[in-house]
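Standup notes, protein team

Yesterday: finished cleaning the Clostridium felsineum set.
Today: N-acetylcysteine deacetylase structure.
Blockers: none.

Input for N-acetylcysteine deacetylase:
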Amino acid sequence: MNYIEKAREIYDELVAIRRDFHEHPELGFELERTSSKVKGFLKSEGIEYYETAKTGICAIIKGKNTGKTVGLRADMDALPLMETHENRDYHSKIDGRMHACGHDAHTTILMGVAKVLNGMKEELHGNVKLFFEPAEETTGGAQIMIEEGVLENPHVDAVIGLHVSEDIDCGKIGIKKGVVNAASNPFSIVIKGKGAHGAHPNAGVDPIVAACNIVNMLQTLVSREISPVNPAVLTIGYIHGGTTAQNVIPEDAKIGGIIRTMKKEDREFAKKRLKEMVESAAKAMRTEAKVLIEESYPCLYNDESMFEAFKKLAEDLLKEENVITLDDPSMGVESFAYFSMERPAVFYYLGTRNEEKGIVNPAHGSLFDVDEESLPIGVALQVRAAVDTLKRLSEK
């Protein structure tokens, strides 16, 4: 089968679906319209499904031949961002919301995959589960979906995911061996001092001065305590203290940020040291500090055998020169990591850049867009990956 040609047969349908999602972005778990559209599509195609993680969906296509099960995942949520692009017909119709990360394209691609695979069930050596995930941009629906059993009944043996990339030309993909994305741990700190008049600082305990010292000290956690050959980032996202009064020492100050690491041991070390450093620095300044460190997305790992198999099929489908092996991981996080922690997985980047069309703007920006010629390419890759993976697993 020519998978690219097969996917291009539904190009107009893919574009219409993607533009509809783009015009009606929804956030987090509040994906009632988006979820309803996906469920309506699956029902019209005769594909069974059930709801999970509030507005998430798990669908299944059962092959004629019994065997293993492969999962394919797409995220559905948008971002709280005002779209400013004025020269396209499918501008967001909801103020302050925008599909600025390509999840509209991801959902569309998985719907296209569902349509194509459902029409070739007799050729499948097993089953394909389709995971439509909510809230990837916030807390991550993947973890809840897994807890609710989407990887069982039937047991999922491998999972495949993609993300659009404005840094890679349309028609190409990027894929990395090993660690693909960082793990993250958001944190918040409350520093308790003692309020006083600004003219008499000795009568109080200044939490703002303590906060400033803590911010500076935390920068050494990465620069001096984690190996320089191991990627790690510590970002302070906010520091709040006081009111508009310029002559008042406040009672407390608040700091918030996030740690990103690539290795499990660095992640655990950074959490431990952050708490120690903050509490020690606060005590030295006669303040008290309460530290809350959240458990967020883990690292995303590409399984070696899945990586090699996918790279080979992609080179066959797109030609070798259009498959880019990426050298460096991303310090960004990705909730597909939860799937990669549970099953052998592969995750890759689908090129959507097109300089001639002006599609060059970064994700999470108000001008972001994708070249829609990438949609059938994504469908073809996911279909071929599902078919080949099931066949390969059934031969083991």
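Follow-up from PR in the comments: The chain is about 35% helix and 25% strand.
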